[in-house]
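[[Encoded backbone]]
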Amino acid sequence: MEIEDINAETMKKKPTPMQKRHKPKPELKWQTGAYERFADFNFILPYQFLLLCRLMDVTPQEALTDFMDNLSCGSWKREGRDTEKEHLINYFIAHGYGQEHYTEADIREIFKEMDAVGLLFPRESNGKMVDRYAKWRDKHETWWFKKWFRKPRHIKNS
């Protein structure tokens, strides 16, 4: 590490308690507690996961962030990740997540719709267009969530 890097790190101010507490208001009223968007997690990483990450020279945060980005079908780092997304969607479905509320076909449709929004990101445009896209995306995602949440969510056991 260079002396300049060390000085830059030691010169950073620590956030005050007031700065730490300031989080944006939730978009939807249920986005609190376990569903808070700006969440700080404190959990124990499985030792094997930590060892694997170190062997592969990928930080646990990077691995978990990639997992979340791919599963959410977002616009961030999409190129060349279709196979990974498909595996994660299959993993999600194999675990049975959401199947007490939706059919497997519904869950696959939910993922297709999320992916379609991510595909619309204006990659070859200026900041103004990206800002417009972001505003539209946020409104669309709220509408999309409510559409699926309001759908009759309990599957009858046959």
